[in-house]
Design a protein that fits this description.
The protein has about 210 residues and is mainly beta. Helices cover about 10% and strands about 30% of the residues. It contains three helices and 24 strands. The strands form five sheets. Strands 6-9-12-15-18-21-23-24 form an eight-stranded mixed sheet, with helices on one face.
Amino acid sequence: MRIIILGDGGHSRVIQEMIFSTSGNEVAAILDDKYEQGFQQKGIIHAPISFLAKLLRKDTKVVVAIGGNKIRKKIVESLNLLPENFLSIIHPTAVVSATAKIGCGTVVMPNAVINAKAEIGMHCIINTGAIVEHDNRVGNYTHVSPNTTLTGNVTTGEGVHVGASATIIPGKHLGSWSVIGAGSTVIEHIPSYSKAVGCPTRIIERILIK
């Protein structure tokens, strides 16, 4: 498969390694606006994101390899591509139930677990060692950080960031664009645009909409 990667930071480097480790994949380009002009390195084009229009073909898939949820959404919306133009990447060590659903553009990192009937939205990050238990509903552009556990029937809105090693108890909802601090334990619903930390969590900040 011919793949174009958008973003060339730390998160992108992990995704690049995942792609290179799977036979049959060809990284045609790595596009990032830190590049002022295009050049080739080891047969891969490096250029600004605006080069995408010149490089897209019918046999090409795109992955937005940017960790920030808001930036990832902004870039996806600016591209005006169909969902099927985006590639979902699942690391070979991840365990994904046959009954789970993974949205277009989502990345599932090494040793993650996605269990029965879970539904992951588009352009999400299920990071290293994260556990998404049965019947979860994870909204678009959500980032589930390393070693996080979403227990059964957890739901999230769009753009949620769940910090590393956080635990969400069964049946709780994390509102859109909320942030859960690393190591926190969520035992209540979390409103949208809220930052919650602690064991159990308490809301410490309302997040301004930008």
